[in-house]
Structure formats: C-alpha cells, structure tokens
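Risk register update: the risk of archive-format incompatibility is retired. Evidence:
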Amino acid sequence: MNILEGKITAIKTHGSISLVTLQIGSIFFNTIVIETQDTAAYLQQEHLVKVMFKETEVVIGKSMDHLVSIQNKVIGEILDIEKGILLSKLTIDTAIGKIIAIITSDAAQQLQLKVGEHVTAMIKTTEIMLSK
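Archived output:
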C-alpha cells in the first residue's frame, strides 16, 4: 500500500459523495469518497490526512502527454525494477515521495522500462483512499 500525507484543499459534495482535492507536496490530487463533512470529521479544509492507494492501481506512462481521463499524475525516476515472471515491481522517486507500482512484466517489457528512466505515475480518482 502506498501511503502519503496530504492536506485537504477543497471539498465538493453532492448527496453522500465528496470530491476531495488534496495537496501532497507541490502536487494536487483528487479523490472521491463516500463521505461528507457531516459524516466524517476529518473532511475539513486544511486537515492533514493519509492518502493511500494500492500498488496495483498505479498506471505507468513514459511522458505527461497522455490523453487519458486520469487526473492524478506525478513524474518520477525509476529507482528499482524487480522483474518477475508475471508481475514487475517498480520503485519510483517522485516529488511527493516514493511510489511503488506493480504492473505486468509484459507491460514493463513493452514500455522498455529501465532504472534511471523518468515515467509518469497515474492513479485514478476512484482508487485513492483517505484516513486520519
């Protein structure tokens, strides 16, 4: 599990769902939570929260010029690649801290990923969890 610390900068709510904007270092991420400011005390602007997402939910790209709907993007340098038969584990150093990504080894080979290379780590808005 990737765990980072962020600060809530904005909250938009509709019904029982909130779109939360977070600042993690100098990068802004968004997440959707099934909570509101009325049901979760931690959902307040300026509150510090843990920002969590699974390693398997990180999508890897080789530049920022991807035309995809994923809003949460951060550039980083690959520090380590552990290649397995089916899956590969990437350790990426980013402006918001180290991020671990697990992708298929076929995808790592197709992208020709190498240690020291810069990649874009992307996380879907619906895959980020928050905690106090």
